[in-house]
Structures are given as C-alpha cells and as structure tokens.
Amino acid sequence: MKDFLIIGGGVIGMMTAWQLADAGHEVNLVEQGTCSGEASWAGGGIVSPLYPWRYPTPISQLASWSEGRYAELTAHLAEETGIDPEFRRKGLIYLDVEDEIRAVEWARHVDKPLSRIDSYAVYAREPWLVAGIEGGLWMPTLGSLRNPRLGRALRAKLEALPNVALHEHCRVERLVVNRGHANGVDTTAGRFTAGSVILCGGAWTSQLLDPLGISLPIRPVKGQMMIFKTPTVSGSRQWLERVVLRDGRYLIPRSDGRVLVGSTLEEAGFDKTPTWKARNSLYASAISILPALAECEIEHHWSGLRPGAPEGLPFIGEFPGVADLFVNAGHYRNGLVLAPAATRLLVDELLGRTPIIDPTPFRPTVRLVSSETQVVTG
C-alpha cells in the first residue's frame, strides 16, 4: 500500500506527487487519460489571474506565492528533464480597463508594479497593435509559459522518481471508504490502496464524489482558444512580444512567433466540441488587438474544461466527515497560476507542516445528499 494516492494527473496532481515524493513518500497517481491532457494542456499559460484585483484576497495570496517560484521551477525542470517550459517574463499590457482606479489601488496595496502608460509607451512596446490606442495599464512582472511543455516536463520528472507510479488511461470507478476513512479507489485497472486519497480531478472532481453522497460545487466551464502562426518580422523580433489583454480576451506570444488568442466562457457541461461561433468570435477579438493576424494561418482551434467553483476559490484540504480524503480542485481559470502555492498548501497539511498562508478560506465545505450513500465499503 502506498502512502498517498492521487486522482488526477494535471499540473495540480503532478506537482503534489513531486512534493510528496521529495519528502520521501510512496505515491500512486491515477489519471483517466494522459497526464496534463485536459485543462492543464488547454489553457494559455499566463502566470497571473487576468484581472487579479477582481478576485478575493486569498486568491491574490496564492497567486503571489506562486508567481515568485515559476522561474526557478521551470529552470529546474528544463535542466533535469531536457524539456523547457519556456517561461518568459515580459509583462502584460491591459487595454480598456473599466475599473482602472480599483486596479491601481489594488496594486499599491499588494506592492505590485502596475502603472498607467500613454499611447506612445504602448506602441513602443508593441508597435503592431491596432491603431488608435490611447494608453493602458502596464504590469512588467507578468510571466507566461508553454503549459503543454510544462505538463510534459512534470510527467518526465515523475517518471524518473522511483517512489512515484503513474497509471494513465485508468478510470476511477469509485472511491473506497471504510469506517469513515478513505483508503483507496477501484479503477478499470483494479484496486489501489493508500493511507490517504487526494482528489485533483479538476472539472470531474464532483463526479468522483457523487457516489459518496457528497455534493461539491465544482462544475465544468468550457473555454475555447486558437493559435496563429506568424512570421518573424526582423531579426528575433516577433509581431507580438508581450501578453495583451482587452475586453476579457488576451493574446499570448510564444518564443517561436506563434500567438494564442483566448478564451471563451461557456456553460456547456462536459461538451468539449470546438464551435464555429467561438472560432469567429476569437478571430474577431484577435484582429481587433493585432490586425496583422488576419494575414496568418490559424494553426489550431481547441477547447478545454475549467473546474469552476464559487468566487473562483479552490477547495484545498481534508473533507469533513471522511478522514484521509483530501481535495485540491476548483481553481477555475487559475489552475496553472495557483499550482505551486495550492499544492504546497495541501502538502503542508498532509505532512503536518506550518502552512504558507492561512488555509481556512479554502477548506472544503460539503453537503451530504444522502447519509445512506456516504460510505462505500471494500
């Protein structure tokens, strides 16, 4: 029997496994598809909430802790695995921010560099943006990375650890709870047991809990994105060098010249089918920010499912009433942003360490739908 069993092989699940293994524990990780194949792959890779001043304070605390660690984390993964997540810290330009005063006040309060820049300063940074921009907000410390590469690097790191076992294409059929304690799962590959069970199932987390009669308010929120292939303009200069955000849509540059545009917010259940309506909307948003993209090939259009939770606050910690059953899910649009801090916070609880921040706002509060179905015996 392993010390810990993790359900879900996204960035949250893999970072949790890495930290527990580094602490000397034996870990099984079970993933219904391939590791980092869902929301962790489908997102844009911005290492900050899009409009951080609009989130509750606990989100800002997690985000601040995480942002300061991505440079070292990605460099470590690149050196050990040979897979570079391509972390870039080139800043973010905000355009047409309605609550600009609130944003600046938030930045001053949390000691975050965010300043108003004029039209000249905008075009000095990004000369190919649409004409007529009168100015914007500038956050120089924002970073981004290529999240598919981060996922591959984390997977390679775990594969190299002797005390971690990865089980991909392994679907969980039910959680096993005996006498009020979770101690394993039944899967399509058989039963796995452990001292503690950790749910990192993203948008699917609530489905895992339903057979126990536990209702956790996490729902799938569909998001569609596209990527354009652009040419190099002159030397190493690309058409876009920095993240640009306008009217809730963003452009994210990659080091090879590609530009991502995202993303939609759709209540469509577990349907991940890309649609022409979203494609047209994303295209319009992209060229309204960077008109030259109209000349470029759309290389790929895809969708993913975010794990939506009330106020965007993830659930992190042990479930009340079911000992040894833990959760780290519901990060909504900020799974990648919060991952280093969210996983560290849970691992601190699992190992009895002093938490990095107050864990109280993230503790899971659940509603038992039926007390008769709360316990599944082995």
From TrEMBL:
SUPFAM superfamilies: FAD-linked reductases, C-terminal domain (SSF54373), FAD/NAD(P)-binding domain (SSF51905). The keyword Oxidoreductase applies. GO terms for cellular component: cytoplasm. The keyword Oxidoreductase applies. GO terms for biological process: thiamine biosynthetic process; thiamine diphosphate biosynthetic process. Keywords: Oxidoreductase, Thiamine biosynthesis. It comes from the Bacteria. InterPro entries: FAD-dep_OxRdtase, FAD/NAD-bd_sf, Gly_oxidase_ThiO. Residues 3-348 form the FAD dependent oxidoreductase domain. One of its GO terms (molecular function) is flavin adenine dinucleotide binding. Pathway: Cofactor biosynthesis; thiamine diphosphate biosynthesis. This is Glycine oxidase. It comes from Vreelandella arcis.
